[in-house]
Design brief:
alpha/beta, 5-stranded mixed sheet, 5 helices, 39% helix
């Protein structure tokens, strides 16, 4: 069983968004992650793009039991209730998420409180600001290690 936390951080002025994904194993240790900068139309779209990347990362790594955690109610509602009250451009990404989730043998996608998603938020925010170090996964900066420790995750060796 693994946990995949996803988050998007959107800049209304530039329309740039950071996408953050943090993967933990059943012991709570960070084992993988992903981050990137994308240009999107809204904060909601950044959340959907983050979830899309989280699902893709789980598929690439052949995770069979996954808990995808998001603090976006829009993502949660779309996946579980097929809430169609999203813009047409978001629907394309949302439908892609739903299709890819069918390829994950066993998963859950609970909506969590923002405070429980700080590691993915840190990654997304750093990418949005264009200041995330390239080696953030292999050599996490002290600011990220602090977030991981407050999130209840063991600090990297």
């Amino acid at each position: 069983m693994g946990w995949v936390n996803t988050d998007g951080a959107f800049d209304l002025v530039t329309r740039d968004a950071g996408v953050g994904v943090v993967v933990r194993n059943c012991n709570g240790e960070m084992i993988n992650g992903f981050g990137c900068l994308v240009n999107v139309s809204s904060a909601v779209m950044s959340e959907f793009r983050a979830c899309e990347q989280g699902v893709q990362l789980a598929l690439w790594n052949k995770y069979e039991k996954v808990v995808f955690e998001t603090d976006s109610l829009e993502v949660f509602k779309f996946v579980y209730f097929k809430n169609q009250n999203v813009s047409w451009c978001v629907k394309v990404v949302a439908a892609n998420i739903v299709d890819r989730l069918k390829l994950v043998p066993k998963y859950r996608l609970p909506s969590i409180l923002r405070g429980a998603n700080m590691a993915a938020d840190w990654v997304a925010t750093q990418f949005k600001r264009k200041i995330c170090p390239e080696n953030w996964l292999s050599q996490p900066p002290s600011s990220f290690v602090n977030v991981l420790s407050r999130d209840g995750l063991p600090a990297p060796p």
